[in-house]
Amino acid sequence: MKRKGVIVMTATILVVCISYILYGFFVPTPSKMSYNDFLDASGRGKISKVYLNDDESFITLEDNNGKKFITDNPRTEAFKEYLLKHDIEVKETRGQFQIRNFAILIGGSIIVFMLLSIISKNGSKQLQKNNRISSMQITPVNSMHIRFDDVAGNEEAKESMRDLVDFIKNPEKYSKYGARLPRGVIFYGPPGTGKTLMAKAVAGEAGVPFYSVSGSDFVQVYVGVGASRVRELFKKAREKGKCVIFIDEIDALGKKRDGGMDGSGNDERDQTLNALLAEMSGFNDSQGIVVIAATNRLDILDEALLRPGRFDRHIEIGLPDVKGRLQILKLHSQDKPMGKDVDLHELAHQTVYFSGAKLESMMNEAAIMAAKRDSGCIEQEDIQRAFYTVVAGAEKKDRSAISSMDKKITAFHEAGHALITKLMVPKNRVSKVTIIPSTKGAAGFSMNIPPDSMYFNKTDMENNIRICLAGRAAEEVIFGKDRITTGASNDLEKATQVVINMVRRFGMNERCGLLNYDILYKNGMGAQDMNMIAECKAYMDIIYKEVMGKLIQNKDALYNIANALLKKETLDEHELDEIMNIA
Ligand code: ADP
Q1: Which domain holds residue 341?
Q2: Most ligand 1 atoms within 8 A of CB, residue of 147, 197, 353, 354 to mutate
């Protein structure tokens, strides 16, 4: 038997012995009655039951109240007859007590043994797991092939990173002049904008190994594991000498410490963060190690992380503008056979708010479509389909299940969105309207492209609500109040979000004023929210009425668009303009 088995067995014997002793200690033994008192009591009919056992010196008896006593065992044959004559129930228990005690002892031992075995097995599994999670597999990419040329746009970020590359290559050059270059850089910006790509390019340009980890890898259930992983990572990196350490999603471990407002605090995260800060302060300026972290939001990070000597260079990597998008599109079409009819400039204009990752995925999707068709090159048609796949999910192949009534409702709903955009928000482009359901759940959609801009003004936000409400309004205008459908649920969600933001956060409602209601709420002034719902509803009602009015005025156009949709299923911008007689 292995050592573990011996331990379990010893523990079992100990547990059983102790339980047995405790059992004897706590379970009350019946009090003693003299034999004469017994004879007297049985003569007076006060004894109801006697347990006979020839092997024991005592017998157990029970009085009429169910109370148990013991008395001397006369061990005579006549005794049983005496008992029966006095109407006393006789129970012969020869050997039964011993057998029962023995059975309890054996049964108990087996149960305890099994329980201890299971516990010890789980314990050792847990131990193995702890060992496994405490040592994370960190293997660097030693020669990164990505260069700054592989990152399109983001010129300022690239410029700033060039200094860093020089520092990694020649740290002595800077330390000779007493210059301290950042040990830590934070890239912040929306997902998919190329933060990881840029970090890789820094390592590639500097020609040093690239370690990549995610903040969430460090945050574990077990306190101390994250901190030991951080130390392990830096130990390995130091052994390599110069390198770039990339920590994605740094917010997972570097969120502001709020002192546990929920009363909990987070020991594991604090310890991990402290370990990271200690390691970063620990390395030598001339070592040439740079830590690059990425996050979607800089404002939620703990200040301790952002202090000098830690992550003190903050670089925004935002969504690309038209120029950036064109560069990214060019980059990702470089190695693909592109058809002559593909206009990347036009595509860059169409893809407002697309991140680099989305653009890359769109080009990839187009390539897959062209490959499926085996058309020799990627044509405009593939790009357009890929565009809508990325925006709205893949078009559903099986359209047969949609009933004609559903189609009609969808057609008017989408026509409403398109018409109101054209009439009331002409600066937005409606590049496509369709009644073909997408896999993302929408029955159809109207593709709306707002112009590139940094800020939204009040009218822009109201226009957003107008466009959202137009689908429902069209249903009401055509089918009547009682036949409106659930199709507008997504639109209403979006519109509600916009109106709430206007009223609560952006000070765009006169009656609610310039207050930020989220902050009021945080400061215990939640009661103010009472009129907020009424305010939002009133705002929405006004806009809805306005949209309804516009649709009623232009009912013919609404019918024309909806009928064209029923016929063709999908209309592009040009076809829509034709229907509306817009030159
Ligand atoms: P993030 O780290 O910001 O979430 P990634 O660096 O992981 O984004 O980007 C994912 C992919 O998107 C990249 O591998 C690349 O193909 C593409 N990409 C994103 N931004 C750019 C860009 N500026 N230039 C070229 N490709 C980009």
Answers
A1: 322-392
A2: 197
